[in-house]
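Hi R.,

Here are the chain sequences for the assembly we discussed:
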Amino acid sequence: MKESERIEVSNGGDHWECLCGNHTMASGFGTCDGNGASVEPFEGIWEGLYACHDCGRVIDQENYTVISKAENVRSLGATPSQ
Ligand SMILES: [Zn+2]
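And here is the predicted structure of the full complex:
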């Protein structure tokens, strides 16, 4: 089994830094589902996951572990490859 990646968290959990270098004060993170698709943080829909806006890693806020990586990242300002 592949070892899990973990993001860096500081400032009492307020500041997140992804393995790609994105952090809370840069592109930031958004609530998402297990596939990295953006969802509103509503009970019953949202499972406590965040997606990195730069690389698409899906992060579980319970333990800051990367559980998945979105295939199609809607990078801000980036041109889709298709
Ligand atoms: Zn990232």
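Residues 76-82 have pLDDT under 50 and may be disordered. Residues 8-71 form one domain.

Let me know if anything looks off.

Best,
T.
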